[in-house]
From TrEMBL:
Organism (species): Streptomyces cinnamoneus
Molecular function (Gene Ontology), one example: rRNA (uridine-N3-)-methyltransferase activity
Name recorded for this polypeptide: Ribosomal RNA small subunit methyltransferase E
Membership in a protein family: Belongs to the RNA methyltransferase RsmE family.
Subcellular location: Cytoplasm
């Protein structure tokens, strides 16, 4: 197995070089010692989640939540091109976390929750903050599980107007729709810049939303002959785009 990944504070790896002894404590240290049961001599990867990672060896374990890592190499992962953002309509129950988890594992760069008109679930007040927190925590854990050095961002929930503005600024904008006349597999994609993909709710994207997105430059595309659930469509589409753009090459 590849070495497990643990998340450290932003900028914590600045100035770290091979030979540096880096302490890992707090919740991540506790997980490494008490859950993963890492021991002296085992390999480990630390990342800031923003593209910088260090590979090292555990050289000391103290108590239940502290270990020391001697750095053997430092790596900086460049910003991926093109960047892929998925606008995900809010699903029911825990299907939102499922969508975020699988899209993170697949390799998307950003997830935008969308309060579509046909969403049964609505994020309001404390419930909305709690749900957003779950999506962000899911992205962090899935980023570690999939051995990523650059974790996807999860934005605050957007309205249809805000999503339209996001689409207008994209280099390629698409709405997944079962009645789309053009397959996503044949769309002309940019080599660099931003790709923004909209995934509607279980009830579908409304005609008014389709019009607003079309005016912003986003056209409907279909994935294939079958209709996927909102919690899986983004992952399938992202995999297709990652393959076609060469990021999975």
């Amino acid at each position: 197995m590849t070495a497990p990944v643990f998340l450290v504070e932003e900028d914590a790896l600045t100035g770290v070089f091979p030979g540096t002894v880096f302490p890992l404590d707090g919740p991540e240290g506790r997980h490494a010692v008490s859950v993963r049961r890492l021991r002296v001599g085992e390999e480990i990867v630390l990342t800031d989640g923003a593209g910088t990672g260090v590979h090292g060896t555990v050289t000391a374990v103290e108590g239940k939540d502290h270990l020391e890592v001697t750095v053997t190499s430092v790596r900086s992962e460049p910003l991926p091109q093109p960047r892929i953002t998925v606008v995900q309509a809010l699903p029911k129950g825990d299907r939102g976390e499922l969508a975020v988890e699988t899209m993170t594992e697949t390799g998307v760069d950003a997830v935008v929750p969308w309060t579509a008109s046909r969403c049964v679930t609505q994020w309001k007040g404390d419930r909305g903050l709690k749900s957003l927190g779950k999506w962000r925590a899911t992205a962090r854990e899935a980023g570690k599980q999939s051995r990523r050095l650059r974790f996807p961002s999860v934005a605050e929930a957007m309205t249809t107007r805000q999503v339209a503005a996001l689409l207008a600024d994209a280099d390629f904008a698409a709405v997944l729709h079962e009645e789309g006349s053009t397959p996503l597999a044949t769309a002309e994609l940019p080599e660099t810049g931003d790709i923004v993909l909209v995934v509607g709710p279980e009830g579908g994207v409304s005609p008014e939303e389709l019009t607003a997105f079309a005016e912003a430059g986003a056209h409907p595309y279909r994935l294939g002959p079958s209709v996927l659930r909102t919690s899986t469509a983004g992952t399938a589409a992202a995999a297709l785009l990652l393959g076609r753009t060469g990021r999975w090459g």
